[in-house]
Each structure stands twice: as structure tokens, then as C-alpha cells.
Amino acid sequence: TMPTPTPVNVVTGALGAGKTTTIARALAMRPANETWAVVVNEFGALGIDGALLDDAIGGDVGARAIASDRDSANGGVVVREVNGGCVCCATAAPFTLAVTQVIRRYAPARVLVEPSGMGDAGRVIDALRTEHLKSSVDIRATLCVVDVREFGARESGVRTSALFAAQCECADALVGSFADCATADEIAAFEAFGRGFWPKKAAVVIGERANVIDARILDVECGWEGASDDAPHASNAMNPSGPFVLPRPTLVYHGEPWMLKNATSEYASCGYAFHVDDVFVRPLLKEFFDAFVLRRVDVARFKGIMRLGADWVRPDIVHGDDGASHSIAFTSVAYRRDSRFELIRTRGIDADTDVDEDAFWNLIREKLLACRKPPRV
């Protein structure tokens, strides 16, 4: 029988945001009989030192030897360093080797990966999904640690960086740090920031609050909510700035997309979600947007995140110099959970579609499927 894949979490965030402290809190919450592993790229520079891990795991550990020699059968923490800088770029091979060796040698119940504060978490997830690791790991929630003081007068400018945007975009959950040093307004601004993402973040929490970094947050998935939570968010699909919220489905590689419809008297919407391994063909997808979506007068809004091979993109409208013409350009994004597309149409503009709206949603489904690459053989 195949071994059970090991749960893996990526913990990202800017330099100094508090990633190490967040990992320490997660380690402190682990079941006493479980061995967890931490994979970091520069042991000393990122500050996962013996004292901090000693606090986290309640043992007497020292410097680099930490728990590489710990008896995993009795529970403990294994720390593995990846030399040579950021795990998301030139050292992808050492990174995948390090994760593989840790899993084989210690059989940890969970692996926490801390990229450099300059690292792209999306590329780390890509590395975890390569053929070398794919069958061995179960990618769980990606956490982005954010210093909530950046949302007040003490902001450093990190929020304006493309790297910060990518780290937050990739995350399933946002963890606010340094809240004990922040004002109530800064915390509220961080929480409002976290609620503004599409796809919707599964959790926006304050790390200092008791027991918040436990298995519940480590296992959440971005953009899905339980059926019992649907009602309060039902109006979001009609809100041009609201998130696309779905009850969590089971997505199948090269299967039918998950579809969720919603409607009011004025608007109707449908969301489509595809398996993470489904890949779309760039020219076909661009033609779908340029020749179909942008030409329909009843389209009020659309959003999407689609996988194009190694690249993940969102479709952005580009207006022509004449102010009238427009087309689609694809912008790279860091989100890696699944491909999804949502369209909202205004009722009362196209009478034929109003009469048979289901046929319209099914037509979009068929057009999206026609843009998808054939399955691997």
C-alpha cells in the first residue's frame, strides 16, 4: 500500500513579520506524541534558534544539532536547514531533497516550511507539487504572517511591495503578529484588509490570541466554506467587490468543474472551480475572454484565477487608446489552490438568456472545458 502523504504547511511573510514565532506557537500546539519537522533555508539568519525551539517544544535543545538527532518515535521537532538562500528559486533541488529526506527518516506527522522573507511562497508550493514530492506530501494551509503595525502610523512601506502582495495572495490564512504592540485601529485595519481578498481567505486571525495556531487553521483551505456558513455570504456573489464563496467541493483532475449559481431579481452569477492540476491553454483562454466574455453587454463583472502550465494568472481588462476597445491581458498571481472563474450578469438586457439562464451557464462551462489541455497519459 502507498504511504499516507505527510501534511505540509508553508509559513510565509516579510522579513521580521514574526514567522518564527508563529511556527513556535504551532509547535507548542502539536500533540505530545507527534514528531513535526521544520524546513528552513537559512537556520541562523532566520532565527529559529535553540532557545526559541526550547520554548516551543519544552525540551533542552541547543543550536544547530537541535532535533536532528531527536528520537522521533517519542515525539519531537526535527529542524532541517536548506543552504544557499531562498528555497523557491535556485535551491529547488536541495529543498525537495531536504523535504524528502526528512519525511523518509523521521516520518513526521507534519512538516512546516519557512521560506526566506524574500521568498515567493507560490514557487515553494510549485516545488512541493513536483513529481519528486507530489505523492509524498499533502499540501495544507499556507499561512502568511503579517505585522499588524504596518496598518498604522508605524508602517514601513512593506505593504506596497509586490512580494508582500504575492505572499498574501498565495496564503489560505493570514496571521496577524505583534498585536500586543499595536493599537485597536491597526488590528481592525489588518482584519479589514484580510476580508478584502478574492478568493476569500479561510481565516484571518491574531497570532497572539490563545491556541489560535492549531490544527484547525493549519488545515483550512482558501475560498471554501461549509454549507452551514453559506447564508450570511449569499449576497456576496451579487456584490462586484465581494468574494467568490463556495461550499468546499471535491475537485477531480480533468473532471467536470464545480459550479455554484446564485441570483437576485437584478443579477445572476455562476462560479466554476477546477482541480489544481487542470491546465488551460493561453491562446484559447484569451480568445474565450476577448471574443465571448468582453462582447456580451449583460456581463456586469467577472473574476478568475487560471493555471497556464507553470504560470498562474488572472484576466485583467486592458483598454485601448481609443477608449472604446478593450481586450484581456493575463497577470501572474501567486495563488495556487485551484483554478476558478466567476461571472455576474445583469438580468433584463438579454431576454433570451434571461429565459434560459441555465443554458448560458452550461455554455460557459463548455467553453472553459474547451480551453483546457487534454489529460496527461
Provide an overview of this structure.
There is one protein chain. The protein has 377 residues and is an alpha/beta fold. 26% of the residues lie in helices and 25% in strands. The chain has eleven helices and 16 strands. The strands form three sheets. Strands 1, 2, 3, 4, 5, 6, 7 and 8 form an eight-stranded parallel β-sheet that branches. Helix 1 (19-28) runs parallel beside helix 2 (50-57). The chain starts with 5 loop residues before the first strand and ends in a 7-residue tail after the last helix. Mean pLDDT is 82; it is low at 43-51, 59-74 and 226-244.
Give a short account of the largest sheet: 8 strands, parallel
Q: What level of helicity do the residues show? A: 25-40%
* Rg (C-alpha, Å): 22 Å
How many β-strands, per DSSP?
A: 16
The number of helical runs is 11
End-to-end distance: 23 Å
Low-pLDDT residue intervals, each spanning 5 or more residues? 43-51, 59-74, 226-244
Structural class: alpha/beta
Strand content: 15-25%
Give helix and strand order, one letter per element, not per position: EHEHEHEHEEHEHEHEHEEEHEEEEHH
Mean pLDDT across the residues is: 82
Shape: globular
Chart the SSEs and their pairings:
Layout: E1 6-13, H1 19-28, E2 35-40, H2 50-57, E3 76-81, H3 92-106, E4 110-114, H4 121-128, E5 137-139, E6 143-147, H5 162-170, E7 173-177, H6 184-194, E8 203-206, H7 215-218, E9 224-225, H8 230-233, E10 246-247, E11 258-263, E12 267-274, H9 282-291, E13 299-308, E14 311-319, E15 326-332, E16 339-346, H10 351-355, H11 357-370
Parallel strand pairs: 1-4, 1-5, 1-6, 2-3, 2-4, 6-7, 7-8, 9-10
Antiparallel strand pairs: 11-12, 12-16, 13-14, 13-16, 14-15
Helix pairs in contact: 1-2
